[in-house]
Amino acid sequence: MDIWHRLGRIFRISNLGTLIFFLLNIGLILALFCPYGITFESTAPLIISYIVTILISVSPVGEWTLAALAGAQEIKRKDIQIRLVPLLEIVFGQAKKRTPSMVNSIRLKIIHDQSPNAFAIGRRTICVTDGLLKLSDREIMAVFAHEVGHIAYQHSAIQLLIGGGNLFIAGCLLVIKVICWIITALCGLITGIVTRNFFATILATLATSISAGLIWLWTRFCMLFLMWSMRQNEFVADEYAYKLGYGVILANVLDKHMCSVPENGLLKALYSTHPHSDDRVAHLQHLGANYSRY
Hints:
Layout: H1 2-10, H2 16-33, H3 40-58, H4 60-69, E1 73-74, H5 78-98, E2 107-111, E3 118-121, E4 125-129, H6 137-152, H7 155-195, H8 199-256, H9 266-270, H10 277-287
Helix pairs in contact: 2-7, 2-8, 3-7, 5-6, 6-8, 7-8, 8-10
């Protein structure tokens, strides 16, 4: 039964956009590198390289690297440890009772930023900012409950998977771009020298720019599905916090301390990683959180 619970947390509607993102990008790579048909000989190097990149990204090395890139550090100050660690242990104990299959421990790291924020990385890391210390204990526990929800549903582990897959795909696209630029430049130069008409060189350069632009558009199109999944997963993590008993407190934090408002414009909203705070508060109220600002 445990394996079905694990799979159920991963294969959710909220993760559908992530799945589509991967399928579209893998389809693009296969189309570019295997234009004459998919065979074992043509796909084996791609598959092996892809798997190796994924394994590295989901390993502790990938988790540590992502935390380092985010500027997260080990908590060295005793007063901060005394303040935060017991609160996380209480929330994690509650989560472990609800989701016994989740990891057995969580690492806590800090980012020196005065705005209150927190986020989960990988399978077992939660990063908090200095600004989070301005909140009350119950408010910090509500934030922890949300982040533990991401870990329980493996949202943050999937992000590592996305990072590894994205790195591989980005590398492939970069190789394609470089090859196109080199071939186009050489062909254009040779054509210009032979015909003494450098207009052909300009056209070749323009064609390369158009191809690069199409690749960029394809990437942005795929990101739409990924961003949709990330926004949906915020609602899932909020619901997890609500089920742990932090619905009202979390709504208060979202409403007053950690407001996330996507930038104006349809495209900017579509590429936002978080829903509007009002939508998240409304979702918590719909679940039954008796919260009101007024």
